[in-house]
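Re: the request from the purification team.
They wanted to know what the chain is likely to look like in 3D before they choose a buffer screen. I agreed to run a prediction and write the result into the notebook, where they can find it.
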Amino acid sequence: MPPKPQNFKNPIIWFFVSLVVLWAAPLFLPTFYIYLITEILIVSLFAVSTNVLLGFTGLLSFGQVAFFGSSAYAVSLLIKGTSLPFAASFFLSVGISTLAALIIGLFCMRLRGFYFAILTLAFSQIFFVVVYKWTSLTGGDDGIVGIPKKPFLFFDINGADAYYHFVMFVVMVSLALLYLIIRSPLGEVLQAIRDNSERTEFLGLQVRNYRLASFVIAGTFGGVAGALFAPFQGIVTPELLHWSHSAEPLMISLLGGMYFFFGPIAGAVIFVFIKEWITGFTEYWMFWYGLLLMLLIMYLPGGIMGFVSEHLKRGKDDSR
């Protein structure tokens, strides 16, 4: 049974405090850290969207990288190959990832457990092969380079600070929407399905439809993260869709605490900083991260947020 989270009091206040701190970050942080926080924000959104499936619906998917990568490629092709404004390219690419999630979800929802996870992985590898082999469109192994940061509506987002503020705004709005979804009746049903799908079905609810809705929501916001990632990096390659990247958002959720909405965000902060720190010593950073994750699962099975929640609970019990 998942642990009961110790909810933050006044989440609206926390949201606006975070918004103010993040907005002011370029005033007192060097460009390197602004670049790092931008990456953390994008990775956080991708991990939280994946955790809608894993932590709140109980579905293990290895295919979310397909929606992240397809959106990144779509926005890159639209920016470089058409005269569409960036806003139109951005929303079209997210729409493509949403449609892909709906179509793939219709197939995958026929299966459960291990078979569901393997089928999602199979679909993601189809995307990888298409991107890798369709050289005339995607550039093949070389990918798409030189992706510019075009103005978004009336806002110039070129430059590290300007694009950081754009990413921050989109990610914070997306996280707020995901939080409202998880706290809504839909979110309550998804968590009931996670805890006991058979009992939920006995109540007369169409479990498959709710799972499909969760899959589409995760794919949509994963697409938002992908559309932000392409201009941020300035390059997209088939590696984005490789099976080895499918596990990253899952590991981040485990690290932060998959039964907590803010767990993947905490996990993303640790993931990006550890990656940046270890790569300064060795290119085999995944080995050391895997070792850290193994120790975490052994000694902190609830993740970072689970550990914090447990201590908050003990503190309240001791104060009584």
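For the purification team: DSSP finds 14 helices and two strands in the chain.
Please add any questions underneath this entry.
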